[in-house]
């Protein structure tokens, strides 16, 4: 069994998107959360965003939640890090694109890897599953109690991608169950352990050049997801692999690149269409 994929300098790469988020911040289930509502104000179809290591204040995730709200979903971005997200300044410290990554010398690459290890190691201990999963469940339970809420989906990115998958596991209490999930370039994913209990519709968006999920791992994930649809399980799944995209592309790609921008737009539509289908 694979013990999963870890973290690399790609986890700390990318671009900050320009724009001003339109939502507001409130406290739900004991956590601060960014909230972006559809024009109708309806909470009937809800999507919870599980962020990457840069957390709920990162402009990119808030602007993306705004786009989902425009598509008709009530969106919540909880602060699962409880004020301890990694600073956005790290985005300037490592390679933001595949082209620049491939130009790094071995020495520079090793230095970046060492820096990432020194930064992420203690952070991952503080935000291990035993700490984070109960916070996620606490938030899902609180959202389920909001008047008018019917179907609830979760979408996760990088670090949060794994928790989106965990939220689909069979045996969840009624108040903790989600109806569908999307995971974009999940990290720290144990294969097949984290995929075998999946019991709700799950869509994966992966980058072809993801340094954490190589070609062999991608094939394994595709196989595991196909098994969820067969063998009498009948769980709807899909895997989309985006050409020349690195880890983190769906949330913090390079907007100056037409190809990267198209991949981000396509991944956004992948999630929106998945939730329209399974939260409808």
UniProtKB/TrEMBL annotation:
Dienelactone hydrolase domain ranges (all copies): 31-279
Record-linked InterPro entries: AB_hydrolase_fold, Dienelactn_hydro
Superkingdom of the source species: Eukaryota
A GO molecular-function annotation: hydrolase activity
One Pfam family it belongs to: DLH
Name used for this protein in its record: Esterase/lipase
